[in-house]
Amino acid sequence: MVLPRPYAVQLLLVAAILLCLPLFVLSSLGDKSIPFQNYLRKCLIANCSSQDKLMQFEQVQPHYMQLLGWNCKEECKYHSMWNTVHHFIKHKLEVPQFYGKWPFIRILGIQEPASVIFSVLNGLANIYMMWRMRQRIPKKAPMYNIWQGYAMIASVAWVFSTIFHARDVGWTEYLDYFAAFALTITGLWTACIRIFAYQRDSMNVKIAVPITLVLLCIYVRHVYYLAKIHFDYGYNMKVNVIVGICMSLLWVSWSLYRIKRQPYLWKTIATVIIGNLLVLLELMDFPPLLWTFDAHSLWHAGTSPMPLLFFSFCIDDSLYLLQYSEGFKKGV
Q1: For residue 327, what pLDDT band results from cuts at 50, 70 and 90?
Q2: What pLDDT, on the 0 to 100 scale, is given for residue 19?
Q3: 120-143: average pLDDT
Q4: How confident is the model over 151-167, as a mean pLDDT?
Q5: According to the model, what pLDDT value does residue 173 have?
Q6: Which secondary structure element, helix H or strand E, spans residue 276, and what is its range?
Q7: Residue 136 and residue 315 in contact, taking contact as beta carbons nearer than 8 Å
Q8: What predicted TM-score, i.e. pTM, was given to this entire model?
Q9: In angstroms, how far is CA 244 from the centroid of its own chain?
């Protein structure tokens, strides 16, 4: 098997960015519907149309709801949404999305409770494996700092995911999307560094630096476009998918090429296969089961044990590289 050279990977990444053209995103039918607009207008007039009414609303609202940003207007949107859902169900119509989301039953002000719980589980899995790597891998081992940094970025990304699913507002959405892409691009970076930059028992800086600069430029360009030009959901999804495909192809091709000498590489292959199968959940778009579990939350549930498998590979591979560098193994 002939593996791609570093410059070929860089060209592929640049081409990927050029292909990431913004996609047209449809607005949600639910918040545009006449029943929703009527319910919302009545609620705003009854509860939010004067200073006295706003003061009455704030006096009866629990403090934790205020902390989560559920002001009078947002409360009216939430209750109008459910009135509209009941209206659609009563007339045997298909329940639509509202403001780009399915209706979710909130718990203690948490907007998407299932996604919050599963995001926490993902974060805990990454934190546990970060601790586990510190216990198992000597600090002098190759790739030790890289894997620790990757686990740290993953943990932070899942913290931001938890915050976003707890309360979807502008700044939490930015944190979630930018951190998620940071995790995706860092995953590709670790694959490139391990496969191309590590030669024999040390890192080749002449290869590592260009790879790092290219991927850093892609990340900055992506964040700048979303933050300053146009926050396009379709564009963001397309970029993440392309980067994920590149990372998957690299790990699988390299693992298949070397698995006879490094049997533990089945873990990377399994991680990639399971991860890509779980991504199919993102393509399924259905109203939440029990108004709680949608496809996205089930995807988070499926990914929660994956850090245990992938970072187990990281432990095995770091120990393998350490043995090689110390002369216990001849050739990698």
Answers
A1: low
A2: 41
A3: 96
A4: 97
A5: 95
A6: helix 266-283
A7: yes
A8: 0.86
A9: 11
Distance CA 64, CA 237 (A): 33
Q: Which residues pair with 98 in a beta bridge?
A: 101
- Judged on CB neighbours under 10 Å (0-12, 13-18, 19+), 203 is middle
Q: Considering only CA atoms, which of 179, 238, 217, 183 is closest in space to residue 21?
A: 238
SS (H, E, C) 253-274: HHHHHHCCCCHHHHHHHHHHHH
Residues 6+ apart with CB under 8 A from 197: 6, 203, 204, 205, 207, 208, 211
Q: Structure tokens of 218?
A: 């892609």
Percentage above 70 pLDDT, the chain:
89
Long-range contacts of 3-12 (CB under 8 A, 24+ apart): 3/195, 3/253, 3/254, 3/257, 4/250, 5/196, 6/192, 6/196, 6/197, 6/207, 6/210, 6/211, 7/210, 9/192, 9/196, 9/211, 9/246, 9/250, 10/210, 10/211, 10/214, 12/246
Q: CB atoms < 10 A from the CB of 78, how many?
A: 17
Number of Cβ atoms within 10 Å of the Cβ of 273: 12
Q: At what angle do helices 144-166 and 170-192 cross, to 10 degrees?
A: 160
pLDDT of residue 199: 73
Q: What integer pLDDT is reported at residue 210 of this predicted model? A: 96
For the record, the structure tokens of 221 come out as 């360009």
* CA 67 to mean position of chain CA atoms: 25
How many other C-beta atoms can be found within 10 angstroms of the C-beta atom of residue 286?
9
Q: What is the rounded distance in angstroms from the CA atom of residue 274 to the CA atom of residue 279?
A: 9
Cβ count near 63 (within 10 Å): 8
Q: Answer whether 299's CB lies under 8 Å from 284's CB.
A: no
Pairing relation of β-strands 198-199 and 202-203?
antiparallel
